[in-house]
């Protein structure tokens, strides 16, 4: 399975940005997977940002709640992260991840995800 993250860039504080994660593998049943976003800032551990479950239910880290929105399009096998009111502390490499789960479960820790994409850099200047 190949996950491809894209859409990162350099923006000013207060700006918006949308990153995407596409599943490039053919024959992969995307709607059987919960999908998550993680980020790793300079000198920091990789941390949970947001996730969307198979049913579309979403969960967020407290640091991004109210500013970020995660969503998925099963037909396009794509997950999105809309980031509004960006802050310098949001600067990080953003990674997408996937895990086959039961319908009601949404993983939120690194260890629960077993499929990872490459990162996309988001830089927010003050």
Describe the protein in words.
The protein has no helices and eleven strands. Strands 2, 4, 5, 6, 9, 10 and 11 form a seven-stranded mixed sheet that branches. A four-stranded antiparallel sheet has the order 1-3-8-7, with no helix packed on it. The protein is mostly beta strands and 126 residues long. The termini are far apart.
Cα distance spanning the termini = 37 Å
Number of helices: 0
Main β sheet profile? 7 strands, mixed
List low-confidence stretches: none
Shape estimate: globular
Tally of extended strands? 11
Rg from Cα: 14 Å
What share of the residues does DSSP label as strand, in percent?
Answer: over 45%
Key words describing this protein structure:
126 residues; mainly beta; seven-stranded mixed sheet; four-stranded antiparallel sheet; 48% strand
Short characterization:
The chain is mainly beta. The chain contains no helices and eleven strands.
Give the helices and strands, then pairings.
Elements (H helix, E strand, L loop, with lengths): L2 E4 L2 E4 L4 E7 L9 E8 L6 E6 L5 E3 L7 E6 L4 E6 L8 E9 L14 E2 L3 E6 L1
Parallel strand pairs: 2-11
Antiparallel strand pairs: 1-3, 3-8, 4-5, 4-9, 5-6, 7-8, 9-10, 9-11
